[in-house]
## 1
Amino acid sequence: MKWTNTLANDPVWGREITHQHQKEQVALKLAQRLKNGDVVGVGSGSTSFLTLRALAQRRDKEGIEFRAIPTSIEMELACSALSVPTTLLRVERPDWSFDGADEIDSNKRMIKGRGGALLREKLMMQASKKVYIVIDESKHVTRLGQNFPVPIEIQPEAIHIVETSLKQFDTITKVVLRRAVAKDGPVITENANLILDVTFSQIDNEMEHKLKSIVGVVETGLFIGYPITLVESDKL
């Protein structure tokens, strides 16, 4: 039985969406990819929310049924509000998935994880047969790390071990524990971990491997070497 309370039926993004018109245009374009019976991996963030909403609108209009595998609690709630059936990654493999990006360079190297779901997003990307990255023009950068730090998800017990190890990297200029906005203390991920936001002056292709070799690092927001298809306002 579906919940009937307001929060369970309110598919509204709780914050202001930047570049909303552009994001809605690419979301509508990607929704044309949907086929009846698809299992779709749903990324996190406002772009993914708008894309999920476009998929649900096409379902309602054309009767195309699909199941979603959400990568965060926020997207689980959005699926529920939009009456999109969900399944689990350990139960079904996605036919395709979509997600946004915080930054992407000319070599399709990305930074993701401002929403805190980087581990689940990376698992989804690894599992999907086809991965679409939905972006607007503001996401393109000439240098990875130009606008945003790299999120690093860590086990709480390892916070001092990891920070000490990060100080050995010459290209790291700043390490900050991500603090919560609506609660005291740090952000806690869906996996009960902490996030360090790390600023780099330069990021090479081996950096993801170097960071993950540190004991206590669970995952990084560097997405390098993944076979992705970009979806933008002027092409699919």
## 2
Amino acid sequence: MKKLRYKICFLFGLALFFSACEKDRVFPEFADIEHGAYPRLLGSITGPNAPSFNYNDPENASITFMVEFYDDQNGATVDSYCWTANHAPSGSSGDLGCVTRSQFGVNPANGRPTATFTFTLQQALDAMGLTIEDVIGGEAIDFYATLTTNRGQVFTRFNTNAITQGQPAFRALFQIRSNLICPSELAGVFDAVTTGQGVWAGSPCSSSWTGQVEWVHEGNGVYTIKSVVEGNELNDISMGSYYACYGVTGQSGLPNGTLKLTDACGKLAFIGLSQWGETYTFNSITVNGNQLTVDWANDYGETAVTTLTRTDGKNWPENLRL
């Protein structure tokens, strides 16, 4: 296998996970364990630039979303669902309000309680006591949720499993990052050289891959990253490093998942999770005329350096940064 992984067998008790790898094990204790609850995103987050805000048009910047509440009683234990707005650079935060049981709607498809929210950029700024002049394009407003049940349980992004929050089967909505974006024009096909760094799944890797990488703009500064291999375009946030370090030959062995790249007024970042639940970050970003060099890593410990050379006669924007 191209990438070593631990095989995980688990029983999902809503927000609580218990792992066991014994074949055909019976769990007589299931009725006695604590059962949780979570808000499941229905559809998608919508808005003019959803889930981001257009920094240049604060009056019309908004996001809207709906959730249904899921538990072992078809959502009946959920008492409230509350949100705060947070601006990390200034340390500011503020309450945006709660929806309680008496205000819930009903999903006609399954009878579960629902709630709908709309947040505007101005509303978030007001809640935090900030103005548009207090924030900078490329930063973000983080929205954090708290769900409380009639059993006295409190669930947040901290005590709800990352898989429950990140994978399409669950879509538990406890946090939204709304980047403050500006118009983005980074799409293109680039000549690429990617070199692995450090240890990959227990083995050192300093191998290189040379080929082409394409950034496909989906809108609102969000990009799908592809690598071009033997005429085939494959979704590949690693920009060729999996070919170099694991000898991957097909789509299934690449990170996949929900990983994308975002450009928020020149600030580059990764969003989403790989198929193994990994997050990705940049260690450094360097612009030198028509060359962009990025040093990235993920929380599995893989890291690589990629240099992308433009082939359209243009230079990369000088403001690209972490």
## 3
Amino acid sequence: MIIKVEILHLIHDGKVTLQFRKWTKPSVKKGTLLKTAIGQVEITSIDVVKERDISEVNAKSAGYESRESLVNSLQKVETGEIYKVAVRYHSEDPRIKLRSTTDIGDEKYQQLIKKLQRFDAVSKEGPWTKETLDIISKHPHVVSTELASKLGRERMWLKLNIRKLKNLGLTISHEIGYEISPLGKVVLGQL
């Protein structure tokens, strides 16, 4: 479930407590912790609702100016049911601490290298982890479209795989582009 950054900040501050989505099937369930730009956001409930049951208060709680603007945004998706998703800020993103840690010990380092080797082994595109870390290191804060072009890869493929590296604490995402984390620099130096 993707949430706009400005809404994430309102969730963090407790000003937004709901999200509405039109899905053929939900992409989250109660208890899910979403890793976001502001930290972890928890899904506290998810219910199917009818458009007529969405109130003005619901719209405001979802960060919309009015019920009408919320309903208009939902109508842009042609099929599916409307889900009312209750959200709350849960905690800081655990990847922040991980990416700043450079002394992880030999056992954890070996586990990390094995994960990278697995990513490479199962990729239909062939090995990509070192090459991707290297291009980000050489071109920090460069948009994904340009990085993908330099690698001869599709943009969406690159973004998906950079997210895998980020989940391991090896990269940092910015509003524009990425950079290698302190942990990522150590790992890249050893690859």
## 4
Amino acid sequence: MKPKRSIICKGIESYDVDASILKTHKPKAGDIALFRVLNIGKHSSIQSENGNNSYIYPGDIIMMAFGSRYATGQFEGYVPDEFLEEYQILGKGGAIGKLASMNYRLLKVGPTNCEIIGYAVDENGAVINTKDLNKKKHPVKRFSAKRKGKLILSLGSSMDSGKTTTAAYLSRGLSLAGKDVAYIKLTGTVYARDRSYVRDTGARYSIDFSTLGYPSTFLCSHTELFGLFKRLMTMAEDQNPDYIIMEIADGLLQRETAMLINSPQFMKYVSGVFFSAGDSMSAMHGIYMLEKLGIKILALSGLFTASPLLEREVRENTAYPVLNLSGLEDPNVHDIITQQLENARNFKKEPVNHILN
């Protein structure tokens, strides 16, 4: 049976299957293997190499990559350090590993379970690793703090707070203002829908961590994460955009997000932040956290703007612009960014503009 390949395995041209090392090889993130589907749970399909859904059934053979996942609304899982009788699909884009916990709403359906058949190996018998393959394809050619495009972060209070939608509609607004936009999703678990969505909404160029072979960025060291940032920025800057909108997954308290926003080495490249929140209280506390770090907030958006009442609560307690979808996709969003950056340059003291001081 021909295996169904997940999108993280895109670009693997030839391989052999080695079943002799199943119990001796200790997998690492990015290692490719073939699995047999045992039963269907949360994931009834995987994202195929062309980005479409490929539905899977018990008995199907699928090609996946080992990867860990942090997703408060779905699964927590890890690359195992030993052979297991069963593995769980952690992400639709091709991440597989050992499930550690799941959101309560998924308890009834559970995960999709698989058994490993063998590792995909090259002509030398080495296990094929998606991260290693892409390091050779996309090295850092150059990287400098001096560049044409402004780097704007799309941060949020949590998973599903509206970060991708904010990035997409902001891309549309800037594009309608005549600005060239590139989009980067720096962290998360492989699933190409977000980069496709932002591209279709307005970004001319759209890439993410999986473009460089990462099934997930969860548990990356600061050194590896910053190296990934530089490589993706190099690719985006080659397009000569006016703006680079960079989304960082999950919320401010998540490991990699916290690591980045607390890193002067990373933040020196950032012009400002669009912060998305699920409700008014998380919006206000997000402001508090970002201001304590001295991070420039350009505007607030996210799921809370779907409620006029929540939006009103935020507007009454902060001087920052609050933008719903209509505001984000309005070409005037470029003027708002320009004005906010000018205000930040002229106002050096920590702003006192909300109820959480």
